[in-house]
Each structure stands twice: as structure tokens, then as C-alpha cells.
Design a protein that fits this description.
The complex is a heterotrimer of chains A (about 220), B (about 400) and C (about 575). Chain A has about 220 residues and is an all-alpha fold. Chain A contains nine helices and two strands, in the order ααββααααααα. In chain A, strands 1-2 form a two-stranded antiparallel sheet. The longest helix of chain A has 27 residues. Chain B has 20 helices and eleven strands. In chain B, α2 crosses α3. The longest helix of chain B is centred in the C-terminal third of the chain and has 25 residues. The chains are: A mainly alpha (about 220), B alpha/beta (about 400), C alpha+beta (about 575). At the B-C interface, α1, α4, α5, β2 and α6 of B face β1, α1, α2, α4 and α7 of C. The structure holds protoporphyrin IX containing FE (3 copies) and iron/sulfur cluster. The site of one protoporphyrin IX containing FE has 24 residues of chain A, from α1, α2, α5 and α8.
Chain lengths: ~220, ~400, ~575
């Protein structure tokens, strides 16, 4: 039993909201994207495209907001702690993540018994969360390259020419969907495999007790303050 | 323009059963293709009249590795008909498929042995020679440039075509690449491109030839576009002014013709939006004219104005006959593998087959396979986590980071 | 002995080189025909889907894409053991008919006519006399008479005159540049007025062939390269409106064929069926026969889909010599008897393979008529070169006449041939018809094509009417749903220019082999082996013995080659 405590400071309300929006947008985009890719039942194309076009903006705006907010909102510096600092510092790699990459890999490959120490998040988790940002922007770029109103902007059409035409841009966009699906699956799995407390926090803003950690991500013992 | 000249033109037209009305209709369709307003019709009419009454503009129609389909297609143009193009607008001194002359210098007995001079005035090949000296002609190129086997994949007049082609390209005022083969090699250049075909623009680039190239893809070319370009280039003097080049897009295509997708202008588009699809050919859905997206229509990523100009003098076009667009107008002049076959096949699927390890796969197969592998891996991992007893809270935390311990830190 | 090479041989589809040796008697003593283009269709198709072959393989030829497309779908349907619905059969037949009408009209007027008609001579025609002659010809041969179409011969003459005058002195003769205007092989007895009529019809034919392809436009999406005859049937669902449109255009074409093209043929033919010793002209009915083996896979399916019951039926005739009275039995065609030889062609694949196991492995070496000299493979049937095309089809249909079930309202090939030979006989002042043997010649090959046009005109009307009735009944199937299955198949069909077959092997849902034997492959075939006993291909053989009056302008040679419509 090695739950860290989950306190609201880890995910302030705004981020619970952005995460919800993110989730809804992603699910909508993936579903409508699947449908646009092949209309597996009749009568839904207009809605599917409408959904896709709506949520692609939602996703982009939400992500942009999330990034900006990271510079203003304070969040817990590590799990199991109520100590806060500007969120971006906790989002990007922290001092406590250093040299832990191999340890995390080994842990997940069952080559290491102890749970490695992290900071706000473990190394892999951090890489994944950071990666969602460029990934989403690439997704947006490929999406706008095949979107009627923007496809002939030279910023986008140049890319289409570079990848060998609009068809290949579609193929890339389609593949990226699978990348997101795989990311989300792994993300949801890892977030929940050791218990549902993290989900309780990120979705319902519900706190739960557990181990405490200090600023440096080291076990602190006792309760957080 | 003197009134007498008007009459001369109209009597010429009348000889072919073309009325003034037809003529103005023709000018109107040219205006549409060139993206000009109706107010430009008199200007076009004047230009055409002037051209019809002055010496025909010199031109060569050269066939590379072609199926002759683009020539055939030209013959299907009705406004104006091919006779007008060939007799009044252009002097196509070389045009293999319809020209009266034949043969090259080897036709003259004794030439090969070196005892007799070539007699260019008796041969088809001679017509090119004379034109090369004159220069300044329009080169209409049909078919793929065949570079395979040292150019011997296509031999003309006893030598490889690529031997003479650079000079023909160099001395031209402009090159009009008709049909996808001429633009980027077309199907001939499709994987594995056994005869090493390429488009004429790529060929010119490789040979360091700067002659401007106007690309008119689709397989075959739509004759109306050729006529519009010829008139644009020739009659409205856009070549000299350079204005024509400003009208070309990144792919060297006239943006007015190739600026919108088929899907943008498709009459079945309403059904697309409503999600009303043909899932099986010849079905009740097809009888209702539903959208062909689900049977692989490439309209959404094919940039041509086929739905507007249509084919065979407007008789119909692919989608109207129940056939999904195969994207034959997809052409990437300078990008190998961008030809419409590699991009569009399998034509009845939405996305191309991608070559991987000597065979091909659909993107959906690849995507689903990656997804399945990930899901499988997570499942196996999950079982591992369960077995390792980590499901409930994970393993106990290490007390200090391995790296810190090595450095002597920690507890 | 003189060597004469015609390269490029123009006014054909594609690129062709013809080399002949002219003997001391001014006759062709040997000939080599070389296909000079290799594109590698078969290699491109490998690894792709069988359903794509229809779209890609028809692009072998822009003049007969319909037939290649049909052969391709039929090979897939053969692989899947699939029968297309009757509605699709009719739609495909009509599209194919339209291509025949288009192609034959285009061939006769745009490609071949300039070998028999001199625009320069048309300039000296008397306009009034032209009308008289046109009336007389129409009166004799045009069922609808002359008044249905009035051509302004004066305007045509003026236009051509102005064109030639304006073009002559400044190198602006366009497609007539360096043409053999005024060649002595045009018999001087043929009146200038007839030249003018033909020139006028040359221009009119351009409209007519386009009209014919508009029918394909409607039912096939576009032409050249059509879209609808997908594996399993057709994507085209006819409506009464569309069929009205088809019929309207078709009637214009049929009218032209019957009232212009056939009368023109009968008016011009007599001048080419005679010897003019003073001018050194030998009758075109006296040479150009060729290998005398004829192959037809058959075209235009009847409801049974059997090769020998097609409206132009399949059949093989080996060694037909009508002049000598040798009429061998007619064999049913068998695709397994097709063999391809490459020892004289630029390939290094194995020799003598049947296309179902065929290989395409290109390897170029220098052009050498004593070695390898063509990109065309030497295709043989039962080890014999075969002439394919309208002459073969008309001969097979002629021999099968009595066993056939002809559709209502068509003139059969036998009726058309007999009628024409009779008319020609009286034109030439013979007591009876011209003997059937005249078909085995340059002139016969040209005539067979034009008569076939008349047959197809009748057939197309009958087919459209049948389809109209069918659509009115309602509840018609156009497409047979199916899944791709592995196996081997062959689709045999006829393009306007001759027999075409596509072979495919499907493995794992993809094409592991694809082989095409196009009509031109048969006719332009080179020799099949090395050495003296190598057998010439059909065109090569047909050139042997042809007279050449002017070796610098070998008109007879180009006429013979073009008569195959290669
Ligand atoms: C981030 C911004 C995004 C933009 C701007 C965008 C834009 C688009 C556009 C314009 C289309 C073409 C729709 C049509 O032409 O009807 C499309 C298709 C598609 N989108 Fe997105 N999208 C975005 C995100 C996503 C995401 C996150 C996913 C999946 C997770 C996704 C999956 C798909 C799929 C599968 C298709 C169908 C592609 C095809 O088969 O042609 N998209 N997207
Ligand atoms: C199946 C759906 C999802 C579940 C169950 C889920 C669950 C969670 C949980 C439990 C956390 C908190 C992790 C922790 O505190 O250790 C989290 C955070 C996060 N998730 Fe998800 N998630 C889902 C979908 C997504 C998607 C689709 C994305 C983006 C593409 C995403 C991006 C993030 C990010 C960036 C964070 C960090 C929180 C923040 O800083 O905003 N999640 N998620
Ligand atoms: C179960 C609830 C409803 C259903 C199934 C429904 C369905 C529809 C449908 C099918 C249309 C036609 C859309 C189109 O194709 O143009 C429509 C139009 C419309 N609906 Fe509803 N509707 C519902 C409730 C409402 C409500 C609650 C309101 C307003 C308070 C509303 C206001 C409208 C309006 C303003 C239009 C546009 C009418 C027009 O064409 O000018 N609908 N609705
Ligand atoms: S048929 Fe093709 S081009 Fe027309 S709406 Fe449907 S997908 Fe678009």
C-alpha cells in the first residue's frame, strides 16, 4: 500500500475543468473523426462534421487557455503535498525528476521492485503530458490543412505539398488520431492502475488521504499541511 | 476591328455550322474557365477573332509515353471543336496522332548509308526541325517523359525521345503539360515506376531548362481547359506579360481551374452533409443520387472543376454516372509518388494502400493494429500489475532515488 | 534493294516503327515492325487490388479504353466466378457499341482518309458538280437520301483553300505540314469533287465521333477513360431521361454511318479496287492480305455470356485462302493456346509462356532487325501469328451466320458483306459481285471495318431499345455484390481494333500477376524466334509483296499498316 495523498492543490478547479473539457473534446473529435473517416451508419455526416469543427476549436482554445493558466495558477509542487508553486514549474520537469527516467522504465517493466519517487508526476507521465501539447498542435495543423476554409492558406498548403498532397495529409491526421487514442489509453491506464484516487481528484475534485511528500518529492511522513 | 473582318470570321464559322450565338457561348465558357466576368466576353471575342484572322500561332504537340487519350480527349471538345483548334487557332506542325506526314530522315532510301541527304520536307520529323529553328512555339506535351533504359523506353525516329526533348523544350515559349502523365508521370510513374517515367516539369528542372510549364492534370485532360489555356497564353498575350504565371498555383496549375475541390462543387454534396451514402453500386441509394463518399470518392481531396465543366461537351461526368471520383487530377509535378494511382488506389477505399515491407496496408489496418497492440500490452501489463500486487496503490516507494544513493546522498 | 524506315508512323495510337526492304521489282521483300514504347502496365498493377485494375489497365490505350476496361472486369469476374446482371450486360454492350462507332468513324475519316483523299485536289472541285455527285452517291447508297444533310461544300472548299494558301508560305500548314499532298498514289481518275466531299465529311466526322463518345460520357462518366463498368456490373443506373439522351445522340451517329460513311466507302472504293498501269497504281484489293490466320474472342455479350454466341462471335480461322478456295473449319477460341515469345523483343523473360503464367521483365538492347527490335512481344495462337480486328470478326461472323441468333432489326455481317460486294461489282462494271476473296486484302480490311460500323450501328439501336424496355419494367439489377476471392481468371473481349484479353492472378486479395494481350500486340507482333525460319508478325507479313511506287514516300506501306488501326 503506497497511495500518495491526493489533495485539491494538485489539480485546482480550473484544471479539473480544462481536463473535463479536454476529455469531452477528445472523445467527440475521435468519434466524429472515425465517422468522417468512414460513415459506418447513415444520416450523421453533417452532425459529425459540425461536431468535429466545433470541438477542434474547443480543444485548441482549451489547450491554449490551459497553457496560459499554467503561468498564473499555483498548483501543488508534488503529490501528497499542499505546498504550491506556479503550475508551469510543476508541469515541466522538476528537479526531483532528475535521473529517474530509467527507474520508471524499470519499475513498469517489473525490473524494479520499489516505486520510484517522482515530483508532481513521474518522469514518463510528465513526458506524456508535455507531449500532448505539440501533438495537439500538429493535429490542429494537419486538421486545418484539410479544412476547406483554411486549406489554401499558404501556411497550410505548403505542408500539404510537402507531404505529397492532401490525401497524405488526411492519412497523417488519421494516424495521429490513433496516436491520441493510444496515448489516452495508456494515460488512463497508468493514472488508474494503482487505484482510482487520482481520477476522483481530477474528475470529481475529491480529496483522498495517503502518503505525504515534501517539496523535493521525497517521502515526508505524516500529513501534509 | 473592321467590320469586314467580323464578317470574314463569321462566314468562316458559318461554314462549320457555328452561329454567332454558339461563338459567343464559346467565349462565355472561356471567360468562366479563366475566371473572368461576363463583361470580358467582348474582349475575348475580339481576341479570338483577331487570332482566327492572323497567322496561326506555331505549336508542337509531342507525345511522350502516352496512351493517346489526351489527344482523343481533345477531339471530344466541341466549343470550339478540334478543327478550330487545329486549323484556326494553332498551327500544330507536329501532332503525331492526326498529322498528315509521317517518318523521319531514315525514310529516305540511302540516308542511313550516308549517300543521300535527309529530306525534312517529306517527313513528320522534319516539321520539328523547322520549328526548332524558328523557336517561340507553344509546346503541348502529352504523356510521360520516359527515362528508363537510357531513354529507350520510348524511341522515336530511331533514337530515344529524351535525346531531342531538351532542345524542343528549350526553344519553346511555353510548355503546356496536358494530362496527369505529362504533369507528374501519371500511372506510368506509379510504384515501382518500371520505365522511370516523370513529368515534363521535373524533366525540365533536371535538364536546367527554364521554359515556363503550365500543368493541366486529370487523366485524360479535359479539352476545355486546354483551349482556355491556349487562348489565355496566346490570345490575351499573357505569356509575354508574365501574367499567366501569376495565375498558377504551387503545382503550376491555373488556380481558376484547379482551385476548388470536386467535393466543393458536387451536386451530391447535399447528400454528403445529410449522411446519405451509396454503400453499394447500383443500389436504391444510387438511384436517389446519394453521395459516393463511402465507396471511396476522392472528390474531397481532388482539385478540379469537373462538376462545373463536366466531360464530353458537358454530357455528364464521373460522379453523375454513379462512379466515385478516382482523383485522376491529383498530381504533384515535383514529388515522386504523388501520382494519382499511388495516391488514390485502392480507388474504392477512402484511403490509399501504404507500402510497407514489400506489401501494402490500409491506414485503418495499421491504425487498428497499433491500437490493438497497445490495448494488448496494457492488458498484459495490467495482469502483471495485479500479480505483482501493485493494483492497489502500487509498490512501496523507494526511500531514496537510486542516483542520489550512488552519489552517497540519502538516508 | 532499298531500306525504308517509317518512324514515327503517325495517325495511329501510340508509337510505331516500320522498316521495309524494297526489292528490285519495287515490291516489299521483307518487313520489321517495332513497337517503340514500354510503360510497364503489368508491373505497375502487381500488388494492387483486382478492383483497381479496371481503372488503371484501361489506360493502356486512350483510343480503346472501354474494351480494356471490360476485359479487365471480366477477368476479375472470371476469377470470382461471378455473372453480372442482365442490366449491366446491356449497359456495357451499349457503351462498347458507342466506342466502336466513335473509333471506326474517327479511324476512317481522321486517321486513314488522308491516305486515300487529297485535300489539295479538293481545291479544284467544281461546286455544282460536287452537289451533283453527292446527290448521285446518296441516291444510290444512302437509305435516307441526300436531303437529310446539306453540307456547304463551297464554304468548306473556301476554308480549306484559305487555310492552305495562308499556311503554305509561312510554315503554318498545321497538321498538313510535310504531308504528301499531291502524291501520285491518289488515282487521277478519282474526281476532285469526290475529294471535296470526303474533305467536307472529314470535318463533319469530327463532330460525329464526338457525339458517339458523348454516349459513353452519359453512361460511362467520361471518354476517353470511363468509370462505370466496375467488377460486378455497372455503377450507372439508367433513367428514362438519360436513355432518351443516349438515343437522341445515337440516332445522329447512326444516321451519319448509314447515310454518309457507308456511301463514301462505296463511292471511293472503286477507285482503289482498280489497277491503273499508266500511273503505276496496283489495285488495293490485290495485296496486303497478310498471315491469313484470323482470331476473334468475340464481343457484345448475349444473355448466355458465351464467347461463340456473342453478337460478334468468337472464332479462330487458320490459313483461310478464299482466292484458292481454302476454307478451313472454324475453331472455338481457347485462351490457353496463347503463347508469348520474346527472343526478338526487349525482354529477358522466359519464352513461350501462356499469359496466365506470363512474365514481364524488360531489358533493352540495341535495335537490330536481325536480333531484338521491338517492345512488343510476339504473341501467337497455337504457334501461329493471328490477325485480329474487324476483318477477323466479320469473317468469323460470316462463317457463323446460320448458327447465330441475331437481335431483331440488325443487318447481319453476311448481309452487309454480300450487299457491298454486289454494289462494288456493279460499280466496277463486273457481271456479278466482287468475289469474297477480295476481303483478304488492304481494301478488304478497310471495307470490313466500315461494314462492321454499320452492323454496330444497328446493334446499338437494338440494345438501347431493349434496355429502355427493361428499365420500364422496373426492378432491374445493375450490380452483383461480391467479395474478392483468390484465383486466376481471364477476360476476353474485342476492342474496335481487335482481340483483347486480360489475365489476372489474385493472391491474398491482391494481384500477384497481371498480363495483357492487347489488339495491337497481336498485329504488330515481331518475329517469334531467331534465324531464318522465324515467322513474321501479321503486319510484317501483310507488307510482303506490296508495291511501292515512290520509296521516298512509301504510301502503300503506310496504308497497309494503318489498315490494321494499330
Ligand atoms: C486539433 C484540431 C483538429 C482539427 C483542426 C481537425 C480538423 C479536421 C478536419 C478539417 C477534418 C476533415 C473533415 C472533413 O473534411 O469533413 C478532420 C477529419 C478527421 N479528424 Fe480531425 N481535427 C482535429 C483534431 C482531431 C482529433 C483530436 C482527432 C482524433 C483524436 C481527429 C480525428 C479525425 C479523423 C479520424 C478524421 C477523418 C480523416 C479522414 O478519414 O479523412 N481530429 N479533422
Ligand atoms: C479516458 C479518459 C481519461 C482519464 C480517465 C484521465 C484521467 C486522468 C487522471 C486521473 C489524471 C490525474 C493524474 C494524476 O493526478 O496523477 C489526469 C491528468 C491529466 N490528463 Fe487525463 N484522463 C483522460 C483523458 C485525457 C485526455 C484525452 C487528455 C489529453 C489528450 C488528458 C490529459 C491530461 C493531462 C494533460 C493531465 C494533467 C492534468 C493537468 O495538468 O491538467 N487526459 N487524467
Ligand atoms: C426534441 C426536440 C426537437 C427536435 C427533435 C427538433 C428537430 C428539429 C428539426 C429536425 C429541425 C429542422 C432542421 C433542419 O433540417 O433545418 C428543427 C428546426 C428548428 N427547431 Fe427544432 N427540434 C426540437 C426542439 C426544438 C426546440 C425546443 C426549439 C426552440 C426552443 C426548436 C427550435 C427550432 C428552430 C428555431 C428551428 C428552425 C426552423 C426553421 O427552419 O426556420 N426546436 N428542429
Ligand atoms: S460524391 Fe464525392 S465529391 Fe460528391 S459529395 Fe460525395 S464525396 Fe463529395
Amino acid at each position: 500500500m503506497a497511495h500518495p495523498a491526493h489533495y485539491r492543490e494538485a489539480h485546482p478547479m480550473v484544471f479539473v475543468l480544462t481536463h473535463w473539457i479536454n476529455l469531452i473534446a477528445m472523445v467527440s473529435l475521435a468519434f466524429s473523426g472515425f465517422y468522417i473517416h468512414y460513415p459506418f451508419f447513415a444520416g450523421f455526416m453533417g452532425v459529425a462534421r459540425g461536431m468535429h469543427f466545433f470541438f477542434m476549436f474547443v480543444l485548441i482554445i482549451n489547450l491554449t487557455f490551459r497553457i496560459i493558466a499554467a503561468f498564473f495558477v499555483k498548483s501543488a509542487v508534488s503529490l501528497g503535498s499542499r505546498e504550491v508553486d506556479t503550475d508551469i514549474k510543476n508541469w515541466l520537469p522538476q528537479k526531483a525528476n532528475r535521473h529517474q527516467f530509467l527507474a520508471w522504465i524499470k519499475y513498469y517493466l517489473f525490473m524494479k521492485k520499489d516505486h520510484p519517487l517522482g515530483a508532481k508526476y513521474g518522469v514518463l507521465q510528465k513526458i506524456a503530458y508535455i507531449a500532448t501539447v505539440p501533438l495537439t498542435f500538429v493535429m490542429a495543423y494537419t486538421g486545418f490543412s484539410i479544412w476547406g476554409p483554411t486549406m489554401d492558406w499558404s501556411f497550410f498548403s505548403a505542408g500539404a505539398g510537402w507531404v505529397g498532397g492532401y490525401m497524405y495529409m488526411r492519412v497523417i491526421h488519421y494516424f495521429l488520431m490513433w496516436v491520441f487514442i493510444v496515448f489516452t489509453a495508456i494515460h488512463a491506464y497508468l493514472a488508474n492502475v494503482e487505484g482510482f484516487a487520482p481520477s476522483g481528484l481530477i474528475f470529481a475534485w475529491k480529496e483522498s488521504e495517503g502518503l505525504h511528500f515534501d517539496k523535493e518529492g521525497n517521502p515526508a511522513g505524516g500529513k501534509a499541511h | 476591328m473592321a467590320h469586314g473582318n467580323h464578317d470574314a470570321l463569321y462566314s468562316q464559322l458559318a461554314a462549320r455550322g457555328v452561329t454567332r450565338r454558339d461563338f459567343l457561348k464559346f467565349c462565355g465558357s472561356i471567360a468562366t474557365l479563366m475566371g473572368l466576368a461576363e463583361t470580358a466576353i467582348p474582349q475575348i471575342a475580339a481576341a479570338v477573332e483577331a487570332a482566327a484572322l492572323t497567322p496561326r500561332a506555331p505549336a508542337l504537340w509531342i507525345n511522350g509515353g502516352a496512351c493517346t487519350g489526351c489527344t482523343e480527349s481533345m477531339a471530344q471538345g466541341m466549343t470550339p471543336d478540334v478543327a478550330t483548334v487545329v486549323l484556326d487557332l494553332l498551327s500544330l506542325n507536329y501532332f503525331e496522332t492526326v498529322m498528315m506526314a509521317q517518318g523521319g530522315p531514315e525514310m529516305i532510301p540511302g540516308y542511313q548509308e550516308g549517300v543521300v541527304e535527309a529530306k525534312p520536307e517529306l517527313t513528320a520529323e522534319g516539321a520539328i526541325k523547322t520549328m526548332l529553328e524558328e523557336g517561340g512555339y507553344i509546346l503541348i506535351f502529352e504523356g510521360t517523359v520516359m527515362t528508363g533504359f537510357g531513354g529507350n523506353a520510348l524511341r522515336i525516329a530511331g533514337k530515344s525521345q529524351t535525346e531531342e526533348l531538351p532542345e524542343i523544350c528549350k526553344n519553346a515559349a511555353a510548355i503546356v503539360a496536358v494530362g496527369s502523365c505529362a504533369v507528374d508521370g501519371g500511372w506510368v510513374a506509379a510504384r515501382p515506376n518500371p520505365a522511370e517515367g516523370k513529368g515534363i516539369q521535373q524533366f525540365c528542372k533536371d535538364e536546367g531548362i527554364a521554359t515556363p510549364v503550365i500543368n493541366l492534370p486529370t487523366c485524360p485532360v479535359n479539352p476545355e481547359w486546354v483551349v482556355a489555356m491556349v487562348i489565355d497564353v496566346l490570345l490575351l498575350g499573357q505569356l509575354e506579360s508574365g501574367a499567366i504565371l501569376d495565375k498558377l498555383d504551387d503545382f503550376g496549375r491555373p488556380s481558376l481551374i484547379f482551385g476548388q475541390t470536386i467535393h466543393d462543387n458536387c451536386p451530391r454534396r447535399g447528400h454528403f452533409e445529410n449522411g446519405e451514402f451509396v454503400y453499394e453500386f447500383g443500389s436504391a441509394e444510387e438511384a436517389k443520387g446519394y453521395c459516393l463518399y463511402a465507396v471511396g470518392c476522392k472528390g474531397p481531396q481532388t482539385f478540379t472543376n469537373c462538376p462545373i465543366v463536366r466531360w464530353n461537351d458537358g454530357a455528364s461526368w464521373c460522379v453523375e454516372s454513379g462512379a466515385p471520383c478516382i482523383g485522376c487530377g491529383n498530381a504533384n509535378p515535383l514529388s515522386p509518388g504523388g501520382n494519382w494511382v499511388d495516391v488514390g488506389a485502392p480507388f474504392l477505399n477512402r484511403m490509399p494502400d501504404l507500402p510497407i515491407a514489400g506489401t501494402t496496408f490500409q491506414p485503418s489496418t495499421i491504425g487498428a493494429a497499433v491500437g490493438a497492440v497497445a490495448a494488448g500490452a496494457l492488458l498484459v501489463h495490467g495482469i502483471g500489475m495485479k500479480v505483482a500486487g501493485r493494483m492497489d496503490g502500487g509498490a512501496p516507494y523507494e526511500d531514496v532515488r537510486a542516483h542520489d544513493r550512488k552519489k552517497g546522498g540519502g538516508k | 534493294m532499298a531500306r525504308v524506315v517509317v518512324d514515327p508512323l503517325t495517325r495511329i495510337e501510340g508509337h510505331l516503327r516500320v522498316e521495309v526492304e524494297i526489292g528490285a521489282d519495287s515490291k516489299v521483300s521483307d518487313a520489321w515492325v517495332s513497337g517503340t514504347l514500354y510503360r510497364g502496365m503489368e508491373t505497375v498493377l502487381k500488388g494492387r487490388r483486382p478492383q483497381d485494375a479496371f481503372y488503371v489497365s484501361q489506360r493502356i490505350c486512350g483510343v480503346c479504353p472501354i474494351s480494356h476496361g471490360h476485359a479487365s472486369t471480366m477477368s476479375a469476374e472470371d476469377t470470382y466466378d461471378l455473372t453480372i446482371p442482365n442490366g449491366a450486360r446491356l449497359v456495357r454492350n451499349i457503351i462498347e457499341c458507342a466506342q466502336y462507332l466513335h473509333s471506326h468513324v474517327l479511324w476512317f475519316y481522321t486517321l486513314a482518309a488522308l491516305d486515300y483523299v487529297d485535300p489539295l485536289k479538293a481545291l479544284s472541285a467544281d461546286i455544282a458538280a460536287t452537289y451533283d455527285l453527292a446527290l448521285a452517291v446518296a441516291g444510290k447508297y444512302a437509305p435516307a437520301g441526300f436531303d437529310v444533310r446539306v453540307t456547304d461544300f463551297g464554304a468548306v472548299q473556301k476554308r480549306v483553300g484559305e487555310f492552305i494558301n495562308a499556311g503554305l508560305n509561312n510554315n503554318r500548314l498545321s497538321i498538313f505540314t510535310n504531308g504528301w499532298l499531291g502524291h501520285p498514289a491518289y488515282p487521277s481518275e478519282m474526281p476532285a469533287e469526290l475529294h471535296l466531299i470526303a474533305v467536307a465529311h472529314y470535318l463533319e466526322a469530327l463532330q460525329v465521333q464526338a457525339e458517339a463518345s458523348q454516349i459513353i460520357g452519359i453512361m460511362g462518366g467520361k471518354f476517353p477513360h470511363f468509370m462505370t463498368s466496375v467488377n460486378g456490373g455497372t455503377t450507372f443506373v439508367p433513367t428514362e431521361e438519360k436513355l432518351d439522351d443516349v438515343l437522341y445522340r445515337l440516332m445522329k451517329v447512326v444516321d451519319f454511318v448509314n447515310n454518309v460513311m457507308i456511301p463514301d466507302t462505296l463511292a471511293i472504293a472503286p477507285y482503289y479496287a482498280k489497277d491503273y498501269p499508266n500511273e503505276g497504281i496496283v489495285s488495293s484489293a490485290a495485296y496486303g492480305a497478310g498471315c491469313k490466320n484470323y482470331l476473334a474472342w468475340g464481343v457484345f455479350n448475349d444473355p448466355s455470356f458465351e464467347l461463340t454466341k456473342r453478337y460478334l462471335p468468337g472464332g479462330v480461322i487458320k490459313g483461310l485462302d478464299l482466292a484458292a478456295g481454302v476454307i478451313p473449319g472454324l475453331e472455338d477460341p481457347d485462351p490457353s493456346k496463347v503463347m508469348e515469345y520474346v527472343s526478338r523483343s526487349w525482354y529477358d523473360s522466359a519464352d513461350g509462356l501462356n499469359p496466365s503464367d506470363g512474365e514481364t521483365s524488360a531489358k533493352y538492347v540495341d535495335y537490330d532487325v536481325n536480333g531484338k527490335y521491338s517492345w512488343g512481344k510476339a504473341v501467337r495462337y497455337d504457334d501461329l501469328p493471328m490477325e485480329v480486328g474487324p476483318l477477323s470478326r466479320m469473317l468469323v461472323a460470316y462463317l457463323r451466320d446460320t448458327e447465330m441468333q441475331w437481335p431483331d432489326g440488325v443487318r447481319t455481317p453476311k448481309q452487309l458483306i454480300d450487299l457491298t460486294l454486289g454494289a462494288l461489282g456493279s460499280e466496277l462494271g463486273l457481271t456479278g459481285p466482287v468475289p469474297l476473296a477480295a476481303l483478304q486484302s488492304l481494301l478488304g480490311r478497310v471495307a470490313a471495318r466500315n461494314l462492321e460500323t454499320a452492323f454496330v450501328a444497328d446493334l446499338s439501336v437494338a440494345s438501347v431499345l431493349e434496355l429502355v424496355g427493361y428499365v420500364k419494367e422496373g426492378d432491374v439489377k445493375w450490380f452483383e455484390p461480391h467479395s474478392v476471392s483468390d484465383g486466376k481468371g481471364v477476360g476476353m473481349w474485342e476492342a474496335p481494333r481487335g482481340s483483347v484479353a486480360h489475365w489476372m492472378t489474385v493472391e491474398g486479395g491482391k494481384l500477384s500477376n497481371y498480363q495483357v494481350v492487347a489488339p495491337t500486340t497481336w498485329d504488330i507482333a515481331p518475329r517469334d524466334k531467331e534465324g531464318a525460319d522465324a515467322v513474321r508478325g501479321p503486319i510484317e507479313e501483310s507488307l510482303i509483296g506490296a508495291p511501292v511506287m515512290d520509296p521516298e514516300r512509301p504510301m502503300e506501306v503506310v496504308r497497309i499498316v494503318r489498315s490494321f488501326d494499330p
